């Protein structure tokens, strides 16, 4: 799954960081959100609420260092995938996706 995130970033199909992810949600472009296991409870609550209200699947995986290293940006907490194909592929790799990608 981590390699797919790298491909999505290189293809420009990934929003990186809280502000960019919030913008992608508001613009209705986010197809999948990935948040790290070590994100603060406030950050998790915020993005889970937004994801659930917009019916966006959310995955809680990795830690900030792992996600940051994979994407070339240190201490990354949250990303959104803005491409349906990448989102489906990532959800397929991770069997716990809560919603199908619309």
What are the main properties of this structure?
Ribosomal L7Ae/L30e/S12e/Gadd45 family protein, Ribosomal_eL30-like_sf, 14% strand, 102 residues, 60s Ribosomal Protein L30, Chain: A, 4 strands, Ribosomal_eL8/eL30/eS12/Gad45
Distance between the termini: 20 Å
Strand content: 5-15%
Tell me the Rg in angstroms: 12 Å
Name of the CATH homologous superfamily: Ribosomal protein L30/S12
Class, according to the CATH hierarchy? Answer: Alpha Beta
Sheet with the most strands? Answer: 4 strands, mixed
- Please provide the ordered H/E string of secondary-structure elements: HEHEHEHEH
CATH topology name, in short, is 60s Ribosomal Protein L30, Chain: A
User: What is the tally of helical segments?
Assistant: 5
Number of domains: 1
Structural class: alpha+beta
**Reading side by side through the largest sheet, how are the strands ordered?**
1-4-2-3
What is the CATH architecture annotation?
2-Layer Sandwich
In the predicted model, the low-confidence regions spanning at least 5 consecutive residues are none
The average pLDDT is 88
Helix content: 40-55%
Topology, number of strands: 4
The outline comes out as: globular
Pfam families: Ribosomal_L7Ae
InterPro entries: Ribosomal_eL30-like_sf (IPR029064), Ribosomal_eL8/eL30/eS12/Gad45 (IPR004038)
Organism: Proteinivorax tanatarense
Domain Ribosomal protein eL8/eL30/eS12/Gadd45: 4-88
